[in-house]
Specification:
The chain is mainly α. The chain has helices at residues 41-54, 70-76, 85-114, 116-153, 164-177; strands at 14-16, 22-28, 31-38.
Length: 187
């Protein structure tokens, strides 16, 4: 079989657009399938190869015949097959977030190498906080168990008969329930 004719970009079915971008398309079942517009001709060629793998084309019809599988072609493809400008915008914003995250991770790794004392202090703080929270939860569980045991015995209140909280609670409730002189309830 004769080798396929390559376009002026040097890749099969990759064409340069007027604005400087590169377009990729593939023919499947007699219909042209638009793969998208890409910033580089290599990205467009990689997208073409992913589609060629999906359509079961032979390796001599691919731009990068050294790629051995669809998953390898997908991993080498720099951008997914984007069908709309909205998808492309979401992909680029996601890539920016990934780049920011990777830069942050690199910075933090460098910080840990340069400032081991800060790392140790941070670990000590969180260890102490974890111990404190564990003790606090244990205290809450113990108090709850005591309250439930008292309730099960029939002693619903934890206040004793001579506890001044009874007097304070009853007096504040009584003053709230007592109508003032200027209120008229006969309306």
């Amino acid at each position: 079989m004769a080798p396929r004719r390559r376009s002026n970009t040097g890749f099969i079915n990759v064409h340069q657009r007027h604005e400087g971008h590169f377009a990729a398309e593939i023919t499947a079942g007699g219909a042209r399938v638009w793969l998208g517009t890409f910033y580089t001709k290599e990205a467009a060629a990689r997208a073409y190869d992913v589609a060629a793998w999906r359509f079961g084309r032979s390796r001599h019809e691919m731009n990068f015949p050294e790629v051995r599988s669809l998953t390898e072609a997908q991993s080498l493809s720099t951008e997914p097959l984007l069908r709309s400008q909205g998808e492309a915008r979401r992909y680029r914003s996601g890539q920016r977030r990934i780049d920011t995250t990777e830069a942050d991770e690199q910075f933090m790794a460098q910080w840990r190498r340069d400032h081991p004392g800060d790392v140790e202090a941070t670990h000590a703080f969180w260890k102490e906080k974890q111990t404190y929270m564990r003790e606090r939860r244990a205290g809450k569980r113990q108090r709850r168990a005591e309250y439930e045991a008292e309730y099960a015995k029939g002693e619903a209140s934890t206040w004793g008969e001579d506890d001044e909280r009874w007097l304070w609670n009853l007096s504040s409730t009584a003053s709230e329930d007592t109508p003032s002189e200027d209120e008229d309830f006969d309306n």
